[in-house]
Specification:
Number of strands: 6
Shape: globular
Strand content: 15-25%
CATH class: Alpha Beta
CATH architecture: 3-Layer(aba) Sandwich
CATH topology: Rossmann fold
Order of helices and strands: EHEHEHHEHEE
Helix content: 25-40%
Mean pLDDT: 96
CATH superfamily: Phosphoglycerate mutase-like
Structural class: alpha/beta
Length: 201
């Protein structure tokens, strides 16, 4: 029975952002927790193919894992695995974003705004879901490997969970995804199996 294993890793904690929402802004991350990276490498498979978004925080997390012993067959950047583009809302304090979304009637208790709403000059969470699913389908279709590690973000990881559940995009928004946590979703003979979500190294 053919199995494709997707190992999703959320990037290391963001630093220097002063409590502001960042979306797909290119912000830095803290990779100083050596023990977490050592434990992360123990969880992840050897000889996987690795993807990351184009954003520094996922690339830096991947490269630091490599420095701590992560081995792999190949690596590719896929912009579809980036966080939601918040457009002109990126950089707002979280309290100000909550206030704005409530005023507009697009507040969501588990996300930055209603998943159907498109921030000015940005994209909706549903748009994010569609691009994540597009890349996953392509990987599955073209797959010549059994293991794929994807260094990504909280939004795309939740989107992948909804896809695996065959559910509406917003169904997975209540899931908490910690920095550097691992979520494993297996695709087995045209069906999904959720092995674990938010395993913290």
């Amino acid at each position: 029975m053919s199995t494709i294993r997707f190992w999703w890793v959320r990037h290391a904690p963001v630093v220097g952002n002063n409590g502001r929402c960042y979306g797909n802004n290119d912000v830095d991350c803290d990779v100083s927790e050596t023990n977490k990276f050592i434990n992360l490498v123990k969880i992840l498979p050897t000889n996987s193919f690795i993807y990351s978004s184009q954003l520094t925080r996922t690339i830096k997390t991947f490269k630091t894992a490599e420095e701590h012993g992560l081995t792999y067959l190949g690596y590719k950047i896929d912009n579809n695995f980036a966080e939601q583009n918040l457009g002109s809302w990126a950089g707002l304090k979280y309290d100000d974003l909550d206030k704005k979304t409530k005023e507009l009637g697009v507040y969501h208790p588990n996300w930055l705004c209603d998943p159907t709403h498109t921030p000015p000059k940005g994209e909706s969470y549903n748009d994010l879901y569609l691009r994540v699913v597009s890349s996953l389908k392509k990987i599955i279709q073209d797959s010549s490997n059994d293991d794929f590690v994807i260094f990504s973000h909280g939004g795309p990881i939740r989107a992948a969970i909804s896809f695996a559940l065959n559910a509406f995009p917003e169904v997975s928004l209540p899931f908490w995804i910690d920095n550097m946590s691992v979520t494993r979703l297996d695709f087995v003979e045209k069906s999904w199996h959720i092995k674990f979500i938010n395993l913290v190294p």
